[in-house]
Amino acid sequence: MAGCEAKERKILVAVDEGEESMYALSWCLNNIVVSQNSKDTLILIYAKPTPSIYTAVDGTGYLFSPDTMSSMERYSNEVAECVMEKAKRLCKEDHNLDVKVETRVESGDPRDVICQAVEKFGVDLAVLGSHGYGLIKRTFLGSVSNHCAQTAKCPVLIVKRPKSDGPSK
Amino acid sequence: MAGCEAKERKILVAVDEGEESMYALSWCLNNIVVSQNSKDTLILIYAKPTPSIYTAVDGTGYLFSPDTMSSMERYSNEVAECVMEKAKRLCKEDHNLDVKVETRVESGDPRDVICQAVEKFGVDLAVLGSHGYGLIKRTFLGSVSNHCAQTAKCPVLIVKRPKSDGPSK
């Protein structure tokens, strides 16, 4: 296994709108996907809230109007697109890696979205920030990273952003 | 960061007498420390129970005799030595990596031992199996990997051994 032979691995990175997930992606690129000749495939996954989650957030017992739901859905799609663009830019420009990048936007609780994607795509390693993963964070009880570390059927790398806010290494 | 330039990283791997931690070490060697010219330093750490833990295990309210304590201590040292030998063999022979390996045996709760070592040695990545880390496992309440993922001041990789018991990749 020695040397720089390329191995075909599927590495899932869960991204969201927070800086921590971008730091986790950057750390992964620097420390796991280091070779320009890498045959790794990066699967960037973003979990967007389902309509039922918006309803839970309201908390008044009333449903949002169809108009409100529709604009929330539109906003959520725009956020997903923006996050994916930022993540892809990080891979291609900032790290100058010609790695294969796939993006997936799925609706649901990020814990389920991540664990299901691991099985669906036969992922070899899942990379997560230690916080975040929710447009509306308080709707997700419990820690996404803890849950995935125990449940996902592959090794899980949990990357914390240093408190100093220094550059990634 | 592209290419195979060697980076000087300190990678801590927590080992114990269980197969899961050896699988985690093997996965780390195959997927993180892949280069023969690596400048990585592997720090293999083993947490052995403290005398107070033996006492708690007795559970009768009586202390063990000094003779019993002494033979438990001796046994624990032998286990530590055996685990370290096995781990070093895995690095050098099975993976043919000329990586620098340091070994540390510390007394205490593995959660504290691991998190303290991360700070003490300026570790860049901590690698853990998702279970284990205790000669006498039931004395350690809560999950070592969960605790370290939240507390350790570096990224934490949690490696589960596949249920199929297949070879590591």
From TrEMBL, chains A, B:
Residue ranges annotated for the UspA domain, each copy included: 9-160
Ranges annotated as spanning the membrane: none
CDD domains: USP_At3g01520-like
PANTHER family per record: ADENINE NUCLEOTIDE ALPHA HYDROLASES-LIKE SUPERFAMILY PROTEIN, OS05G0357525 PROTEIN
Official protein name in the record: UspA domain-containing protein
Organism expressing this protein natively: Camellia sinensis
